[in-house]
TrEMBL record:
Pfam families: DUF218. The lineage of its organism: Bacteria, Pseudomonadati, Pseudomonadota, Alphaproteobacteria, Hyphomicrobiales. It comes from Methylocystis parvus. Residues 80-247 form the DUF218 domain. The keyword Methyltransferase does not apply. This is YdcF family protein.
Amino acid sequence: MFFILSKIFEFLATPTHLALFIGALGALLSVTRYRRAGCALSGGAIVLLLILGFSPLPALIAVPLEARFPPPPEDAPAPDGIIVLGGSVDENLSGVLGRVTLADAAERLTAPIALRRLYPKARIVFTGGTAALRGSQYTEAGTVQKFWREVGLDQGDILYEDKSRNTFENAVFTRDLVKPQPSERWLLVTSAMHMPRSVGIFRKAGFPVVAYPVDYRTTADFRGFGAPRHASRNFTLAEFAAHEWAGLAAYRLTGKTDALFPAP
């Protein structure tokens, strides 16, 4: 039920969707006796879209997320294992086309190639089933396995968890799969913006991890703010950031994390 409700809420509360819904409602009201209210709603929707598309607001709400967990130092001890979270491929499109189709967070899949060279003895685990609301015959794990075999990373020694549908299930199912020991050190590879929520969930599941953030969308500080070249990029940044802040609140309220904004 949590998974279904989260998907419905995500669709309705996505900033650009919300602005479009408000604008559509305003347009409908403007041809009724509530014309004044309709015009106000339509105008508000346009202003919201302009703010999301051309202001630094999306970056302002994204930077704290990406800056929360810095990468580990270069002289850090070698890990015993590496966990890679899903969200980097379109499993349905890949399955239908018969070829791997990477999504926005492709660095989640390319970073382990370099990590394998640095830490050849570390176990690698990929976790990701399907995030489709109605389910799918294809899984992220199956697509990623195909990709990693094609690039030579998978020599038959990588574990794949293919049942999870969200980050909470990533943590629980991976913990049950690898049964980590207290003395072991595991890296968690996921997008920098997704890292605070991910670390908090893994901690709550009794699986301490070391953050290895990738897929940055900002400089992780407040440098370089300016008008974006394309509004679509700002819309995407706003949607990712809003999704993570809402997820942090939802997971804290439902007891899936111990902190609203997990810290290193």
